[in-house]
Amino acid sequence: MAVSVPAPPLAARLRSLLFVPGDRPDRMEKAALLDADALILDLEDSVTLAAKPVARTAVAAFLAAPRRQLLFVRINPLDSGLAEADLAAVLDTKPDGIVLPKAEGGASLAALDQHLSGETMILPIATETPAAVFALGSYGGVTPRLCGLTWGAEDLPAAIGASTSREEDGSYTAPYQLARSLTLFGAHTAGVPAIETVYPDFRDLDGLAAYTARGRRDGFTGMMAIHPSQVPVINAAFSPSADEIARAQAIIDLFAANPGAGALSLDGKMIDAPHLKAAKAILARA
Ligand code: COA
Ligand code: MG
Question: Is the whole model's pTM more than 0.90, yes or no?
């Protein structure tokens, strides 16, 4: 059984994480004014090979300035031959977290952990290779730096020669529903927040709102963004509403008033231990 690691406090603040290409200092400055809980300064897929050195310098400079948000850096994959230079460029400026693409379970986590010091957290993108899918249950008990688990629906189809991860209506095909579900359960097995993947159609805010609602319903507590317009939608979706807070408080009050009872009735419906647990989780996030 995986050893459970207490979730670090910063994880509770991860509703929205906005990607910004590492070679776009102008966009980093704009992103710093947004209400994203975290920025992910990207050195991987949004930066060409030729631009990696300039991006490393720009990201390090941005990290060295005063921060308004948590700042994560997405490095290149551990086996890319680029990750060492990425880490060497940014670690002195103490990023709040490293996003690890193409992670393949606890072994990848341990390998990255060796390079880190201080408070720097790790957020793996855990479904980008076929092997990664079989390691989704192995992230727990490796390092207290693990601050969440997220997934991707773009790299895996490319890796296996699939033409797409989506049906015509935008919903995931069966293989990517599986990857998403295993990420959700893998995160909760490891005792860390499950973070939804990006919604690429950044002009479709209604579609995004529906997508975030499904993520929240299923047990994700945050989501990555690619565009500023997505941030308020994601923050709203992953913040408990006034109604939810009131109902959670009512459940907690009812159990407190009936200390001997395991099951009670509220508004004509049965509530028991899982409802109490969910209510406490909502108040913790409020
Ligand atoms: N961070 C900060 N600012 C951003 C931004 C981002 N991720 N994406 C867009 N903006 C800014 C633009 O600079 C522009 O600012 P302005 O109005 O002051 O000029 C404004 O938001 C509107 O941008 P828009 O024209 O709608 O987008 P675009 O067509 O220029 O760019 C993308 C679209 C997808 C290329 C861009 O959103 C982006 O780079 N996203 C992140 C990509 C990434 O990191 N991918 C890797 C992870 S999947
Ligand atoms: Mg990718």
Answer: yes
